[in-house]
Amino acid sequence: MIRVAFFRKEGRIVGFESEGHAGYAESGGDIVCAGVSALLISCVNGLEAVAHVEPIVRQNDEIGYLRAELPEALDEAHAHDAGIVLAVAEQGLHSIAKQYPDYVRVITKNRR
């Protein structure tokens, strides 16, 4: 199962962490894993290319791990744009999780 946690601070999404493999099908043919991966990689790319924010990224492909967090010191405009990119990814992942609940779980973790 793929577990994705979105981090929120003061109501804003400030990052995510994804871990695991869907196990829906064999490697190379797993549409659930491919969908989740496409959304999350597109989110990281969107943060950089659209929101002009360089997220702090950690990745380990062997265990299906990807973490991306916004830097702490963002001005309001960049934080807003990054939040939109992250919200689109979160919505897409909720849609996948709704369709494939045995393979994807999405949660929210609040931070102080």
Characterize the biggest β-sheet.
5 strands, mixed
Count of separate DSSP helical elements = 2
Strand content of the residues, in percent?
A: 25-35%
| Integer average pLDDT | 95
| CATH topology assignment | Alpha-Beta Plaits
Second CATH tier, the architecture: 2-Layer Sandwich
Radius of gyration: 14 Å
Distance between the termini: 28 Å
User: What structural category arises from helix and sheet content?
Assistant: alpha+beta
Query: Could you give the count of β-strands?
Result: 5
Q: How many independent structural domains? A: 1
CATH C-level category: Alpha Beta
Topology:
Blueprint: E1 2-9, E2 12-19, H1 31-49, E3 56-60, E4 65-69, H2 76-99, E5 104-111
Parallel strand pairs: 1-5
Antiparallel strand pairs: 1-2, 2-4, 3-4
Helix pairs in contact: 1-2
Describe the structure.
The structure is a single chain. This protein has 112 residues and is α+β, with helices and mostly antiparallel strands. The protein is built from two helices and five strands; from the N terminus they run E-E-H-E-E-H-E. The chain has helices spanning 31-49, 76-99, and strands spanning 2-9, 12-19, 56-60, 65-69, 104-111. The protein has a five-stranded mixed sheet, with helices on one face. Helix 1 (31-49) packs antiparallel against helix 2 (76-99). The termini are far apart. 27% of the residues are buried.
